[in-house]
Write a structure and sequence with these properties.
By secondary structure, this protein is α/β, with parallel strands linked by helices. The chain contains 19 helices and 27 strands. Strands 14, 18, 19, 20, 21, 23, 24, 25, 26 and 27 form a ten-stranded mixed β-sheet that branches. Strands 10, 11, 12, 13, 15, 16, 17 and 22 form an eight-stranded mixed β-sheet that branches. A six-stranded mixed β-sheet has the order 2-4-3-7-8-9, sandwiched between helices. The protein is globular and about 90 Å long.
């Protein structure tokens, strides 16, 4: 049973929310780094901003809910109540916003010098103003619904993160609020004719027209405003009845998403100096001063990804994910995976080999079934297209679609409909447990009647877009033992059995956490010879944190590579002396999860969909795959060493809870740049004997046809001369 919060040792742990804010501060460091190209720096400012938006929507929203329901409940890493956590968050965020504004202003100054300019309305030339005014009249004005707020015009619902132009208006003896939304359907920026690097933001155009829009009033203050709303919906709200007339889960989710749109505000952002207007708006939204943030930086930076056609030096060098050199394009993926386990390392490798496997499965008449879990997908998903094709070709296709993937719920509802219409069997996972696993099982009947299987397990989503941006692993194996577990997993999910055990796979919530605890105990038993390396996105799970502390106290070398939240504090005397925590934020999002126990030939390595978080270990369905191929195990061991040797992008967590850049010793090493130049170099796939024989005949036939096609000098009696005879090596 979990301990009471008062009994936890808080000397080597820190608050989850503040640790997350430190992660976002490291993202902002990338935006401030002069070694990063300027437009990439602007995109890091955008990432920092969208990260913070989600933090307020989810984490701050849930803390506000918790404070209203159980205000005395305390966090088991800091001992703080939800109210104390909120106070610390508000205090920490304000300087981050000031830093963000400063970094953005410096980037925009340098971009202007490089020919990329966000032009203020007052700086437009006469001709440019005429162009902007024409655009406003044609494209923006017809979509506007301006409103004043008084007894006859109630305060409108402000949509989550939508932009509004607001004005404080004077009408005789009274002051009024005027507000008009920036239309969603209008692009965020307007480029000037023939200039893809000079633009004006849409909200800037609207602000310039407020005086005309509210022409019967005197305009005293104006600003752009955005409201952030609580997005932490309870998926069990209004839980469906069990009777036969109850709605299905997909319809239930549609209703909950409508509910999310009207949840309570948790933050208001103001761009522009408008103190009285800000106070008036905050009162109407029932927000405290702590929840109101005044910014210089635009409130929506999504346009950073629309800036193209600029000087190439303003971007990273283009990167195209590669087809792995050790895989053949001429041989079926099924044949190659049957020879050896295949590793794909995104984004250095392309996702195409896995997509090719799915396409082959859809077309192969001997393939009987495809089973797969889906959490997040690309907008134009080839994965779905291949699954639909398989179903239409008569395969039995079972797809577990997680409808509760936060902020992807609508997309997944639509994909579920499309899969069902194609004839796939679609299920939505277990009640109260999100399915975050990434697993695919393909079953084929061979000519002798025997069934064979390919199982794919990964650390990231089946999303072609993010596979180009996130570092993730995907392993495809023909192992019968893994396939047996995979088949059992899908059977268990179909009947809602989450307690089953497995021979090879670690599966949460049933066996993963207890197996990780047992593996850590094994290293504790080895004492100073023990070695644990864990690479994940976050570490928050209290019992596993305590087990890592025990390992440190036993002399085990513990090396944690944690991109984001880390509630464990290293270097605390007598508690975590032998633990180091490294964080890497770079060009690509570090998303892969790898667990390593021991050294040498006995080293055990797993790739996993799960972080070391309470939700992943106890409230989600997750999978970890043991890496059994000696070749892949050796390469993953080297991979972890490269990450731990990074002295360019890596940051080290101190006992104080702060992160510092490592002082470079010897040659500079950026792990992501290293893998761009050195993608996994594994042994090339060998041709199966039967395939090799057919390839020989094909090559012989082509060469013979070429010789017969045209007369050659020296040909005697219709036969090639000795110099032209086909080589024996064919």
């Amino acid at each position: 049973m979990p301990q009471a919060a008062a009994s936890w040792d808080l000397s080597y742990t820190q608050n989850r929310e503040l640790s997350w804010l430190k992660f976002d501060a490291r993202v902002l460091e990338e935006a401030a780094d002069p070694q990063v190209p300027l437009l990439e720096r602007l995109r890091f400012v955008s990432i920092f901003t969208s990260n913070l938006d989600e933090f307020f929507m989810v984490r701050v929203g849930s803390l506000l809910d918790l404070d209203a329901v159980v205000p005395e409940k305390r966090d088991n890493k800091s001992g703080w109540t939800s109210r104390q956590q909120l106070e610390m968050i508000y205090e920490t965020v304000r300087p981050l916003i000031r830093r963000r504004d400063s970094v953005w202003a410096e980037i925009m100054t340098r971009l202007r010098e490089a020919g990329v300019e966000d032009v203020p309305y007052q700086s437009l030339s006469k001709e440019e103003k005429q162009y902007v005014l024409g655009y406003y009249k044609d494209r923006i004005f017809p979509l506007l619904s301006p409103q004043i707020i008084d007894r006859n015009h109630p305060f409108p619902h402000l949509k989550n993160k939508a932009l509004y132009a607001a004005a404080l208006l004077q009408s005789r003896e009274r002051k009024l609020l005027g507000i008009v939304g920036v239309p969603d359907t209008v692009p965020p920026v307007l480029f000037f004719p023939g200039q893809q690097s000079r633009f004006i933001r849409t909200e800037e155009i609207l602000l310039a027209q407020l005086k005309k829009i509210f022409r019967i009033y005197r305009l005293e203050e104006q600003c752009v405003v955005a409201v952030t709303r609580n997005a932490d919906i309870n998926y069990n709200d209004g839980q469906m009845d069990d009777d036969e007339n109850s709605q299905d889960f997909r319809s239930h989710m549609v209703q909950l998403l409508r509910q999310r749109e009207r949840l309570a505000p948790v933050r208001m952002e103001i761009q522009g100096e408008a103190p009285r207007l800000a106070e008036l708006l905050a009162g109407m939204l029932r927000l405290t001063r702590q929840q109101v943030y005044s910014c210089v930086c635009p409130l929506n930076l999504s346009y950073a990804y629309r800036l193209s056609g600029c000087d190439p030096r303003l971007y990273h060098s283009p990167h195209t994910p590669l087809w792995p050199a050790y895989l053949s394009r001429e041989i079926s993926m099924w044949s190659q995976i049957c020879q050896r386990d295949v590793l794909l390392f995104y984004p250095y490798h392309s996702m195409q080999p896995f997509l090719t496997l799915l396409r082959e499965a859809a077309e192969d008449p001997r393939v009987l079934s495809v089973q797969m879990t889906i959490y997040r997908l690309a907008g134009n998903s080839m994965v779905v297209k291949h699954l639909c094709a398989a179903a239409e070709n008569g395969k039995e296709v079972t797809v577990l679609v997680e409808l509760r993937a936060r902020f992807d719920e609508r997309n997944n509802i639509q994909w579920a409909r499309e899969l069902e219409e194609a004839g796939c069997r679609v299920l939505y996972g277990a009640e109260d447990y999100k399915c975050h696993s990434k697993i695919c099982l393909i079953t084929r009947q061979e000519k002798n009647g025997r069934l064979s299987h390919i199982t794919q397990i990964g650390t990231g989503n089946y999303n072609e877009k993010t596979a180009r941006l996130y570092t993730d692993f995907s392993i495809m194996t023909a192992s019968p033992e893994v396939a047996e577990d995979a088949a059992a997993f899908f059977r268990n999910m179909l009947i809602g059995d989450l307690s089953a055990g497995y021979r090879k796979l670690l599966v949460a919530p049933s066996t993963m956490k207890e197996t990780l605890m047992r593996l850590m105990e094994g290293e504790i038993a080895r004492g100073r010879r023990g070695h644990i390396i864990i690479k994940v996105n976050s570490i928050t799970e209290r019992e596993l944190i305590d087990k890592l502390s025990r390992a440190s106290q036993a002399g085990v070398r513990v090396e944690l590579i944690v991109r984001g939240i880390c509630c464990l504090v290293p270097g605390v005397p007598g508690k975590t002396d032998n633990i180091t925590v490294t964080s890497i934020v770079g060009r690509f999002l570090e998303h892969s999860r790898v667990y390593s126990f021991g050294d040498g030939e006995l080293r055990q390595i797993y790739i996993s969909s799960a972080d070391i978080m309470t939700r992943n270990q106890t409230r989600r369905v997750e999978i970890a795959l043991p890496v059994e191929s000696p070749e892949l195990r050796r390469w993953l061991s080297e991979y972890l060493e490269v990450l731990l040797s990074d002295n360019v992008k890596a940051r080290r967590l101190l006992p104080s809870g702060d992160y510092i850049a490592l002082a470079p010793q010897g040659e500079a090493l950026s792990s992501q740049e290293y893998f761009l130049k050195n993608p996994p170099d594994l042994q090339p796939t060998l041709l199966p004997k039967r395939t090799l024989w057919s390839e020989m005949h094909r090559a012989w036939g082509q060469a013979r046809s070429a010789l017969r096609a045209a007369p050659l000098p020296g040909r005697q009696g219709g036969r090639p001369s000795a110099q032209q005879q086909l080589p024996r090596s064919l």
